[in-house]
Every structure is written in C-alpha cells, then in structure tokens.
Amino acid sequence: MKDLIVPQEYVRDFHFSTDEHLMIMLRIMGPDLDQARDFFKSSADKIFHIKTIEPVHEKEISDKFRLNSIYMDEGPPISVDIDPEPEMIRLILDFEWVK
Question: How far is Cα 99 from Cα 88, in angstroms, rounded to an integer?
Fold first, then answer.
C-alpha cells in the first residue's frame, strides 16, 4: 500500500507541539482497522507526505514529515459480553518536519 487517506472523523487530535513537531491522534473502528494497523505497524522513521488543513489557523499544510514514534493501542479486548464494544485501534503519531 502506498497511500493512506484518513477520513476526518478518525482524527481525534491534530496539533503542532512546536513549529517542527506534528502530533496526530487517531481512533479507527470498523473495516478500516486492519488496513491502518498494517500501514503504521513498521512505519517509524519513514517519511510521509502529509496534506491537510491545520485546524487552529486553518492553514493548509502540504509537506514531508518523518514519523519519529508511534503508540498503538488495540481494544477493546474480545469479550463474551452480550453487547460488546466494536473493535478499535488508537494511534498516536509523532512527526518531525523534514527540511
């Protein structure tokens, strides 16, 4: 897979912690779960072209960023409950701007 388009409803937080560090937090549920997990599983240190609109200043961003670190949390666990919660994955992606 070469490209991954993340729908806006999956993005829980998106902000620059500094001028050069971008933090993106995603929560993905449903059939896209496996695709996102596989895409990011071994992506640390890879360079991504990120194109989006920065929410605070509504500034368009289209640049290259290196994925410094990734935190992945899969849940909720499989359960025998009558009304189980749907599977989901939470991702925290820490990017650094590539100059």
Answer: 34
Distances (CA, A) of 78 to 26, 28, 71, 81: 21, 16, 20, 9
Alpha-carbon distance of 72 to 9, in angstroms, equals: 18
Classified as helix, coil or strand, 35 is: helix
pTM of the complete model: 0.76
- Compute CA distances 25 → 34, 79, 82, whole Å: 17, 26, 30
Give the pLDDT confidence of 56-78 residue by residue, as tens digits. Answer: 778 888 899 999 999 998 876 56
CA dist 52 and 95 (Å) reads 14
Burial 21-58 (b: 16+ CB within 10 A, else e): ebebebebeeeeeeebeebbeeeeeeebebeeeeeeee
In this prediction, residues 92-97 reach a mean pLDDT of 93
Residue 6 DSSP class: -
Task: Count the Cβ atoms, other than its own, within 10 Å of residue 95.
Answer: 22
